[in-house]
């Protein structure tokens, strides 16, 4: 998806080992529609060549304040005015210090003085250098001046140390850039999302559940909240952090999730049912832990049907939200998905073929096919993070089309 379409990003590279990741970073930014121009410090060129960066960015690389040819094509003041965002990655302790001090002793530091565009800094250095009070004070100075500080990550370092100071990975920086440019255009839309598995108790210590990780539902919640939507995330038991600016309602069983969904449904514009709800629950929950009985090699659990949450929401006759379901199928995907679309009275269904390796449950990526009464659209294999963004865009388009 062209999440950065038309955005002009000036990537300033300074001399840290993470500079080798800048070719990948540039490609991923361009892939999303950004135009990227590169400025390199002298020491950055010890780690990655200007030729590489020129080839991946499709633009000549600038590296000198005093290059008559470069100044004649796009001078440093022009370059400073051109950018929608200046991204310093990797930003070494030295570059951070020079910028905090307001120095202009090379092209990159001069550009930072001359631009009135926002500047994001991705620190990258040895953990001791990062923790040094001088670096910390310089970063605090930049933060106070409204620079965006992206990272660092923590972990193993090129020098063998372990700790904070690693540059964020290229895709993490791309996501920061996407978030930065994301318009908050859904601020008047309320979305309720169910996510994760349910747990159906058998006795005080045992339950029936499934392999749903909740990742897809959480990614959708995150994407919607980032566009300013008011998001209520009705979650089954999962091991995931609540995305920023999302109101989370924790539930356990399908009946609890059903109750929470019905409470939320009528005051939300859109309801997205991403949860893997258990179809059946034990007819009785034993009050004490069930014991093995000697001589018995079998046990029979009687199950009763759970309420169909999404069908209950879609069946509301008043204040019914635009209702979206999911369908995990292993064969005849379209036929089964369309069957559910009409049987459950949904406005849209997102089908995935879970027979394909690496897709669906518990995986970090997925591919979906959307069906609605008048059409369909394939969303090819992508990370759940990206798919969440695409899905929100498609759902909003269909929701708006239905309103008109
Ligand atoms: O019928 P099936 O379980 O395949 O339908 C999947 C869709 O129905 C999903 O959107 C799922 O969240 C929803 N569902 C539900 N309550 C159930 C069973 C499924 O909301 N008891």
Automatic annotation (TrEMBL):
Alphabetized GO MF terms: phosphopantothenate--cysteine ligase activity; phosphopantothenoylcysteine decarboxylase activity
Catalytic activity: (R)-4'-phosphopantothenate + L-cysteine + CTP = N-[(R)-4-phosphopantothenoyl]-L-cysteine + CMP + diphosphate + H(+); N-[(R)-4-phosphopantothenoyl]-L-cysteine + H(+) = (R)-4'-phosphopantetheine + CO2
Region (Phosphopantothenoylcysteine decarboxylase): 1-190
Cofactor(s) named in the record: FMN; Mg(2+)
Binding residues for CTP: 279, 289, 307-310, 326, 340, 344
Pathway linked to the protein: Cofactor biosynthesis; coenzyme A biosynthesis; CoA from (R)-pantothenate: step 2/5; Cofactor biosynthesis; coenzyme A biosynthesis; CoA from (R)-pantothenate: step 3/5
Keywords: Decarboxylase, Flavoprotein, FMN, Ligase, Lyase, Magnesium, Metal-binding, Multifunctional enzyme
InterPro entries per UniProt: CoaB-like_sf, CoaBC, DNA/pantothenate-metab_flavo_C, Flavin_trans-like, Flavoprotein
Annotated function: Catalyzes two steps in the biosynthesis of coenzyme A. In the first step cysteine is conjugated to 4'-phosphopantothenate to form 4-phosphopantothenoylcysteine, in the latter compound is decarboxylated to form 4'-phosphopantotheine. Catalyzes two sequential steps in the biosynthesis of coenzyme A. In the first step cysteine is conjugated to 4'-phosphopantothenate to form 4-phosphopantothenoylcysteine. In the second step the latter compound is decarboxylated to form 4'-phosphopantotheine.
HAMAP family, A to Z: CoaBC
Family: In the N-terminal section; belongs to the HFCD (homo-oligomeric flavin containing Cys decarboxylase) superfamily.
UniProt-recorded name of the protein: Coenzyme A biosynthesis bifunctional protein CoaBC
Source organism (scientific name): Photobacterium alginatilyticum
């Amino acid at each position: 998806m062209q999440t950065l379409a038309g955005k002009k990003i000036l990537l300033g590279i300074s001399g840290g080992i993470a500079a080798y990741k800048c070719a990948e970073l540039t490609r991923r930014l361009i892939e999303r529609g950004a135009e990227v121009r590169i400025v390199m410090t002298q020491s950055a060129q010890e780690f990655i060549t200007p030729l590489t960066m020129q080839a991946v960015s499709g633009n000549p690389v600038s590296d000198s304040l005093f290059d008559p040819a470069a100044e004649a094509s796009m001078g440093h003041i022009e370059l400073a005015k051109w950018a929608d965002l200046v991204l310093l990655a990797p930003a070494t302790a030295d570059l951070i210090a020079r910028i905090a001090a307001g120095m202009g002793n090379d092209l990159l530091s001069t550009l930072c003085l001359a631009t009135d565009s926002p500047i994001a800094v991705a620190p990258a250095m040895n953990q001791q250098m990062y923790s040094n009070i001088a670096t910390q004070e310089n970063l605090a100075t930049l933060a106070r001046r409204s620079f965006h500080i992206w990272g660092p990550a923590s972990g193993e370092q090129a020098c063998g140390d372990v700790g904070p100071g690693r540059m964020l990975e290229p895709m993490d920086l791309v996501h920061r850039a996407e978030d930065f440019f994301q318009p908050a255009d859904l601020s008047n839309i309320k979305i309720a999302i169910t996510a994760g598995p349910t747990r159906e108790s058998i006795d005080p210590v045992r339950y029936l559940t499934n392999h749903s990780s909740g990742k897809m539902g959480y990614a959708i919640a995150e994407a919607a909240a980032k566009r300013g939507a008011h998001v209520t995330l009705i979650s089954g038991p999962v091991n995931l952090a609540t995305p920023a600016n999302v109101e989370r309602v924790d539930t356990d069983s399908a009946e609890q999730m059903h109750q929470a969904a019905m409470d939320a449904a009528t005051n939300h514009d859109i309801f997205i049912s991403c949860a893997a709800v258990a179809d059946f629950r034990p007819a009785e929950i034993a009050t004490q832990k069930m014991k093995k009985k000697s001589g018995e090699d079998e046990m029979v659990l009687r199950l009763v049907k759970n309420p169909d949450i999404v069908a209950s929401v879609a069946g509301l006759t008043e204040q019914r939200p635009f209702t979206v379901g999911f369908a995990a199928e292993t064969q005849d995907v379209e036929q089964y998905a369309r069957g559910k679309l009409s049987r459950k009275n949904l406005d849209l269904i997102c089908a995935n073929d879970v027979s394909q390796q690496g897709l669906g449950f518990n995986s970090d990526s997925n591919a979906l096919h959307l069906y609605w009464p008048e059409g369909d659209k394939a969303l090819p294999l992508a990370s759940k993070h990206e798919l969440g963004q695409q899905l929100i865009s498609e759902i909003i388009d269909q929701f708006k089309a239905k309103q008109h």
